[in-house]
Specification:
heterodimer, A: 188 residues, alpha+beta, 8-stranded mixed beta sheet, 6 helices, 8 strands, globular, B: 188 residues
Amino acid sequence: MPGPVVERGERVTFRTVEREDAAFQQRAATDPRVRYLLGLAEYENEATAGELIERRSESDSTLSFVVCLDDEDAPAGHPNGSETTPIGMVHAHGVDGERAPLAYWLLPAHHGEGYGSEAATLLVDTVFRTTSVHSVSAGAFAHNDASRGLLESLGFTQERRLREATYADGEYRDFVDYGLLRREWREE
Amino acid sequence: MPGPVVVADDDVVLRTVERDDAAFLQRSCTDPRIRYSLGSIHHRSLSQQEEGIEHWVEEDGNAVFVACVDDEDAPAGHPGENETTPVGSFSARHVDGDRAWLAYWLVPEFHGEGYGREMAELGIDYLFENYDLHGISAGAYEFNDASRGLLEAMGFTQVARRRESRYIDGDYYDETQYDVLRREWEDD
């Protein structure tokens, strides 16, 4: 299970990624509804997903959270299995640098409820509030309308279209990147 | 000194990087006329550069060369000090994937002689001939007219302008990115 609450949105909470969340982390690299959109050609087993948690989520240059739907009486500290529902993960890499690339995914069962927008907004807000980065960026495959629409609705500007960037799900696909500067976020 | 010739054109040859080329490569992260254009914020010591050769130059996923101008009687094998002149470096990362990323530089005293274009074309030909790449990408900061002009002259397409993405020499600058697909390079 994820650990204590670090940030709260209206409906979602950001909880710490714990080692035992490896099986949950693994879903991003196995479920075809998630991994194709993330461009992950290779699936992972639980052990390599665990190593990724150690290497990424526990790195000082990364902010990494499990996005959760807490029950009404869920504790701010370590919840048990029936007190909160992990629905996805968010990461901000390179938060000790100038530009932090963001990454996030939600389990397909929780798509379409606005949780993605809420989690992304909370992530951007957390990064600009707690680190000194000049800007954040986020990418999506060109055909990922949901993710691109979300970024545009948050005020991101498209800055790149890498043509035929990655071979995913049977063909080369374009990848687009967006950026958002700190002063643009302040203006929102 | 650099090692044997791997590929050659009329004026420029690409030779292997040897461990004792660290002092030459170090110029790319010390000379402000080179390092600012590469966005190198941190200078490196000779010893760091030597480690870099072992960890980066000798890594299978990278192709790195010293670009040299040979004397008439320079051997294809290991040259003596007075038989060739190192003028810059051409490198590509991720040559074992779909898409390689270029980096190249010339020492300032050899700018303006056409060596940059010859080196880049020779290197890109080598990459497409020897690796199963779908495309090749390269970046240049907005102020680097020489590099951007070179990429455009070689048929690269601008695909990105990452706004204020790097803090260099007192200000934030945009990074532009270009790419060329194999079929575009071969059509030329």
